[in-house]
Amino acid sequence: MSDFAFTENALSTWMRGEGRDSDIVISSRVRIARNLRSLPFPLVASEEQAEQVRQTVIGAAEQASEALGPLQPVRLDELSEVDRQVLVEKHLVSPALANESQEAAVVLSADESLSIMVNEEDHLRIQCLYPGFQVKEAWERATSVDDVLEAYIDYAFDDRRGYLTSCPTNVGTGLRASVMIHLPALVMTHQIGRVLNAVSQVGLTVRGIYGEGSEAQGNLFQISNQITLGQSEKEIVDNLEGIVGQIIEYERQARSRLVSESKIRLYDRVMRSYGILTHAAIMDGKEAAQRLSDVRLGVDLGWIDGLPMTLLNELTILTQPNFLQKTFGATMNTSEKDMYRAQLIRDKLVKSKE
Amino acid sequence: MSDFAFTENALSTWMRGEGRDSDIVISSRVRIARNLRSLPFPLVASEEQAEQVRQTVIGAAEQASEALGPLQPVRLDELSEVDRQVLVEKHLVSPALANESQEAAVVLSADESLSIMVNEEDHLRIQCLYPGFQVKEAWERATSVDDVLEAYIDYAFDDRRGYLTSCPTNVGTGLRASVMIHLPALVMTHQIGRVLNAVSQVGLTVRGIYGEGSEAQGNLFQISNQITLGQSEKEIVDNLEGIVGQIIEYERQARSRLVSESKIRLYDRVMRSYGILTHAAIMDGKEAAQRLSDVRLGVDLGWIDGLPMTLLNELTILTQPNFLQKTFGATMNTSEKDMYRAQLIRDKLVKSKE
Which residues does residue A172 pair with via DSSP β-bridges, in sequence order? Predict the structure, then answer.
């Protein structure tokens, strides 16, 4: 059991805000990969070297706290398995940091909008998360954090290649910008394949919401830049913003078409999902994601009143297996999780209506 | 448009009462087939002869009204097509009387527990309907009506063969006793085939709720005696009562087993159906019947509060295609019916909770 602040709420404070286009874009994220000049990359570092990295980064964060606000360092080896997975389910650390890294740590801001992963693939990964479609804002924040830290850390930098990173795909700016986007209408109208294919033609990557290799659930997709070298940070951010803007437009068009051509069938689907979520006693993760997607669309279309979007964001995270375990406090098998998940969704949705 | 009393409510007044075992047996019915000695059976009668039958029976009913209470004669050729089908959907007349009979009429008591069909397969078919498991009570009532009418009508009767009927399967007592029974647990546990097979081995017939040739919907079955000759009326009624009593027992056992072995899965199924019925915007007749069956089981098991069984009985009839048309007043295609059906169920269920 732990008393870390991040385990208290499913939704980070930053997520309670609303950004632009937040009916379609759930969140925007920018991460910057950096490494210390004097030490080998984590994959080839000894335990002592990795420990040195951790101490250096945490030390720098402490020194920078006047400029950045209070930061909490968390050593992952001091967490229970469940708490480590909760960090993943909240998107504060990657699965790789939680499962495969030595001397792994994360430095969190109080509202969890800033998280600095230590000893993942790179020595530091500075992540900034914003609600809605705010890639530029996230990038500006991440850059300012990066600038502050650079005063305390000697980064590995090459004049020709830029910032050096463990994996060549991150060399250069070390910047990855991404959005988590909800595209139910493009999925329902079978246009998603074509759209995602086009996206990958222009140097962007599409993933599930838990990063590389994860499946898209509940019509949520993560779209990010593929290339970090040969483009300026601004070009990367502008390119992502431009293309995501187009996808938002396609999704809006698909929604209007669905509403004008088969409103009653769409309404039926949305309301059935709402009826099932507020009544079912067993709900697996995949069904929950899909039905929450339907309900989110219903809220966007003004068909379901009094259901705040932040509650749906919260439920998306709360209903993940480890968060469930954390919430109900017991070790559970899959069937039990399906029952607790149903109960939690029911309670939260019914309560929000009262 | 018509102003006949029977079109005003889906549920006949008699159906608002509750009988024995009404968690499993919806209703009990006895009908007695009788013919006039002096005229040919309807199938071979001329129009004039059929008219004479109608006048004789309606005249007798009028004369008998002191003993039987007020009776309303209804000529089917004076009804709209929709009203005729509403009579069928309320089980007051058979599809054959509504669709195929010349000079067809029905005589109804005010609470619709007594209906006398005129010029169906036989000149008269006296039907008595009771809520719950009350075959004996229905039989006693039908017999008393028969006795009263016999004072005014000269029945075709043969000392050796008994009452003569158009179809040989009805000769003798002319008695058919039946129950409409709800067997969801036997269906879910795949025992229904075996049970219905056994039923047909002992001289009983199983049908859908709209009689011969109709499919069982919503786990509702009509069980009736096959044989009318060579058994006394009492034997027929006792036999049906005994066997239905056993089926009720099997259904109760299957329900207990389901509850003890897979309660949460059954509860999930019931509550999902309730959630869908209270939220869906499109609902076809088959799905409505199945989900109403689930909800009925949920009410029986005490899982859904404040939902009177009579409302479920009413919805079973209200959601039939012609009743829907009657209720909403317009000519509708199938998709429109599916929308009105969903709306009606939603409104009725939500209202009953307020």
Answer: A163
